[in-house]
Amino acid sequence: MADKAAARATGARLLAAFREAGAVEVEADILQPAEALLDLYGEDIRARAYVTADPLRGEMMLRPDFTVPVVQAHMAEGAEPARYCYLGEVFRKQEHRGPRVAEYFQAGFEVFDRADPEAADAEVFALFARLLAPLRLRAAMGDIGLLMDAVRGLDTLPARKAALLRHIWRPHRFHALLERYAGLTPVPPARAALLTGAGQPEAPWIGLRDPAEMAARIAALRADAAAAPLAAEAVAQLDALFAVNAPAPQALAQLRALASDMPAIAGAVDRLARRLAALAARGVDLDSVRFEASHGRATMEYYDGFVFSFTAAGPGLPPVASGGRYDALTAVLGQGRSIPAVGGVIRPGLVADLEGRA
Questions:
Q1: What is the tens place of the pLDDT at every residue in 217-228?
Q2: How is the beta sheet containing 306-311 ordered, strand by strand?
Q3: Any idea which fold 4-137+312-357 has?
Q4: 40: closest CA among 340, 302, 358?
Q5: 109 is in an annotated binding site
Q6: For residues 261 and 234, is the Cβ–Cβ distance under 8 A?
Q7: Contacts of 117 (CB under 8 A, 6+ apart)
Q8: Of 47, 55, 59, 156, which has the fewest Cβ atoms less than 10 A away?
Q9: Where in the chain is the domain with CATH 3.30.930.10?
Q10: Residue 335 known to bind ligand
Q11: 84 assigned binding-site residue
């Protein structure tokens, strides 16, 4: 890993390129209020962030990324459209020793523009592709919104669709739920006993949930158990969608074929076509970019549309750059306001390392 001086110098060069592309440089405090991050990610964020307590400000976290504070600042007082850039350190716990580090620089570029979302997607991707071209990285993209539209189109209970959407960023949990809803896995004995009434606790109740909450939960479980299983054809179509992995033009053709049987994804496929056309207009070689339908599902939690990454060939290395669209995040942090937004980050330390090996 490049030393801090080399990473900072590389980051400054990237930051200058972002400013030349029309972005305004912004700062974000290293100590961030934990409340907003916990509201967005739940308690899972504690396993990855450094948490501390301030006697006046309450629970705080060392900055795990820039996107959330940038969105908060823009939604509070930003004009439209807007382009921002930044450079600074972020902090994330790592479970194992290796090439990943707990403290590293990020250089980022964010676009808030409601005029043409697919053009904004192409602007960010093409800028990153140009800046990183000398490194000959592997470029990949996906679309979380495409997957979400497919789930919303399922013929099943709203509660089941909500659960699948909630876990779309957790692939193992998502597919376990899908198999259960399709009747492909047996009901656990404890749940079976609860559904028949044999497992219901007798008074006095113990725990934080009161009897009414427990009764509502049991009623929801019984409604789920009584619902018809997902059709085998629907599961097969979802599996085929999640497995799409090809150069972008070929993937678009595959997705158009799938959309004939999955009309819920037709709009997302049309948006992908417009995005690819915008990328081609900016000089991106589409045959060199892979579209992976499951791209970003395990690592990009707040993205809800277009996602992308640039990776090096080294085993175990994190992406050199990654990003995507996060329209829903602006609505969550905008207190009733929202705006389409897309952005990404580059790790200057990795760029400096790879340039040093060239």
A1: 666 667 676 678
A2: 24-25, 82-91, 103-112, 341-346, 321-325, 306-311, 138-143, 289-292, 245-247
A3: BirA Bifunctional Protein; domain 2 (3.30.930)
A4: 302
A5: no
A6: no
A7: 271, 305, 325, 327, 340, 342
A8: 55
A9: 4-137+312-357
A10: no
A11: no
